[in-house]
């Protein structure tokens, strides 16, 4: 098993570094500089890079990292990302060099069409698909695609640690409370997250159990969620219509 080191980047990104002995794997290195600083500080050699999707804040540091170290780069075959040596489409199991764990590669179209998630050792690295308390915007995919991708992730074991790529939790939970004000678990989570953020603490990772209990985008079949969505444009109570209305509502929230 590896340790996971959180590397803050840009305004609110997290780059995840998996440390096993003296070897490192990084997930979504949008910026090389903070990764290189951690590698040097911890005396680590970068062996593998996992990329979830093509947006620059997730892969913009790959070329600069490859200038410093010879790493395998896993990422979506369906997206234009320079430096990928191990193109993936979902359904594979990978064993990144320098990491003692295998990862299932899960295709999760929606935010982008080639978006991948990586699941191994009880950890899910899901980029901009599932967020703590929310989900990514639909830049390329349809609501039906994203809803199916989120449903796939929600099937993972309850205790799975969810490592998303942004610290958006507090704003996401403000929206969640507007959708589902009667959810007691959500009320408690929002209070905990507000306290953590006031203290400058990160709120990622969460767990699949926590997301299923409080993330409105995983709760589209709950009556209160469906009723709120129908007051905000959902023409029906089916899960895709509810999801689509929630996503639109959140965009303008
Ligand atoms: Zn993105």
Features:
six-stranded mixed β-sheet; alpha/beta; binds zinc ion; about 250 residues
Describe the model.
With 253 residues, this protein is an alpha/beta fold. The chain is 35% helix and 24% strand. The strands form 3 sheets. A 6-stranded mixed sheet has the order 1-2-3-4-5-6, covered by helices on one side. A 6-stranded mixed sheet has the order 7-8-9-10-13-14. A two-stranded antiparallel ribbon has the order 11-12. A hairpin with a 2-residue loop joins strand 9 and strand 10. Helix 5 (169-179) runs antiparallel to helix 6 (184-198). The radius of gyration is 18 Å and the shape is globular. The mean pLDDT is 97. It binds zinc ion. Zinc ion is lined by residues 53, 55, 58, 111, 128.
What's the quick description here?
With 253 residues, the chain is of the alpha/beta class. The chain is built from nine helices and 14 strands. The protein has a six-stranded mixed sheet with strand order 1-2-3-4-5-6, covered by helices on one side.
Instruction: Give unreliable regions as ranges.
Output: none
End-to-end distance: 40 Å
Roughly how many Å is the radius of gyration? 18 Å
Give the total of beta strands. 14
The general outline is globular
Instruction: Write the element-wise H/E pattern from the N-terminal end onward.
Output: EEEHEHHEEEEEEEEHEHHEHHH
Structural class by sheet pairing and helices:
alpha/beta
Indicate the topology.
Layout: E1 3-9, E2 13-20, E3 23-27, H1 32-42, E4 45-50, H2 56-59, H3 62-68, E5 72-76, E6 86-88, E7 93-94, E8 103-107, E9 116-120, E10 123-127, E11 130-131, E12 134-135, H4 143-154, E13 161-164, H5 169-179, H6 184-198, E14 206-207, H7 208-214, H8 223-231, H9 239-251
Parallel strand pairs: 3-4, 4-5, 5-6, 10-13
Antiparallel strand pairs: 1-2, 2-3, 7-8, 8-9, 9-10, 11-12, 13-14
Bound molecules: zinc ion.
The site of zinc ion has 5 residues, from loops.
